[in-house]
Amino acid sequence: MTQEELFKNLIAHTKEYGFIFPSSEIYDGLGAVYDYGQLGSELKNNIKRYWWDSMVRLNENIVGIDSAIFMHPKIWEASGHVGAFNDPLIDNKDSKKRYRADVLLEDYIAKLEEKINKDVEKGRKKFGEAFDEEQFRATNPNVLRNAKKIEACRERMVAALNANDLDALKQLILDCEIVCPISGTKNWTDVRQFNLMFSTQLGSVSGESGTIYLRPETAQGIFVNFLNVQKTGRMKVPFGIAQIGKAFRNEIVARQFIFRMREFEQMEMQFFVRPGEELKWFAKWKETRLAWHKALGIGDEKYRYHDHEKLAHYANAATDIEFDFPFGFKELEGIHSRTDFDLGRHQEFSGKKLQYFDPETNESYVPYVIETSIGVDRTVLAVLSGAYAQETLENGEERVVMKFHPALAPVKVAVLPLVKKDGLPELAREIMSSLKYEYNCQYDEKDSIGKRYRRQDAIGTPLCVTIDHESLNDRCVTLRDRDTMQQERVPIEKLAEIVDKKVNLKYLLEKVR
Ligand code: ATP
Predict the structure, then answer these.
(1) Same-domain check for residues 101 and 31
(2) Which atom of ligand 1 is nearest to the CA of 375?
(3) Phi, psi of 356 (to 5 degrees)
(4) Average per-residue pLDDT for the chain
(5) What is the DSSP letter of 200?
(6) Binding site membership of 293 for ligand 1 (Cβ less than 6 Å)
(7) Rounded to two decimals, what is the model's pTM?
(8) What is the Cα–Cα distance from 306 to 370, expressed in whole angstroms?
(9) Are 184 and 201 in a shared domain?
(10) Looking at the domain assignment, is residue 388 inside a domain?
């Protein structure tokens, strides 16, 4: 099965089982907006809890806030979003399809990289044991030609983007002979800038003065509350402020399911440090954040850093944590060393001092900031695609199983009376009642036990508890493990402890410490 087919199956599966639905579906949907269903919202909540606890609970010097989506419009001038939160767009005149110019170029580069990898694989097959990949990459004429093309394209793209030179971007698309994936032609319009912020009117004031924006990131709510939190929480630098919340971007092209949405959620943390110490903290957060991802057990090889060579003018270090999505490695989280840019700008635009008096050095300064910024929805997609598996069992049966980390699984335990009579449902209900205060449990008495196991596999429930006639006598039940499908007989009075060991978020959090 190709990655593309796998991705299609995953999307269909998430809809069929109530994880994710297209928004407003009975009205034919709304572009790049999605709703989370009964299981998707549980999964999302578990991811958010994992992030929140790892930041706020485990670090005494990080606190969390929940700031409003609407903010004073001047904030977006200060942050640079009014002037520069733009994407370059280009239309194909034949297909009438719109693209992000930089994404067209990135896709072109990705195709060349794919060609190189194919050549390397061919070489590996041809030379067998004697194959030296490094030497092959350094000498093979095809590889060298494509590598040169990539380098030249990337260099020109970065220069054009940095200089905001839209003509140069178009020329590069023409020079690379990029065609529209739909029409196959090179009949392009000029490149134009498009601001990604949604605007609306505040109260009854119309016109310029009443225009406000739906926040395109949650970070600014943290910056403008910096002093409020520092003073009321008696926080000492270094300290962090974390926030989870909705953000809105009028993305030009929305593809790839919940990877790029127009309404999405972010988990951001701004860590305030002494000027001069930022790179040390940047390195620490880079490492900490990767460990957080890897603890989920999806596979270490699924993650990589992408250090930015060209930095925004206010940043002195930046990296992305990329995840190997079904459509290739793409940004999942950004970690940025943002200097004193944000607080400095708000100081300038608001006219209010945003400084910290450091009792250790007896100095006042505008702290430097390390930001970690991750999309909830992209994490959901990473977790879903990492969990999705189609398996053929020993008896030839097929099963689809979502191998979520147990701490993230939407349903932790399924409680299944073998038959719906003879007092088994009553005992099953008793077990449900003893577990449901701690964990999301599901009761199911319909269909054969085999079918019920398949249903629980499909939604990723780590444990199934089956109650049979014998249970009434020996007060033991059969516990089935989702991944190994092993079954064991356990006393009912031990259930709570066994379930806790398997699914409690605490054990996942301990791994990140
Ligand atoms: P991209 O280059 O993919 O557009 P970005 O660099 O603009 O992303 P940031 O501004 O750094 O993204 O936002 C931080 C995080 O927010 C991203 O790493 C991503 O996980 C998430 N994010 C950004 N835009 C979207 C979106 N349209 N839909 C879903 N998540 C998003």
Answers:
(1) no
(2) 20
(3) -120, 135
(4) 95
(5) E
(6) no
(7) 0.90
(8) 17
(9) no
(10) no
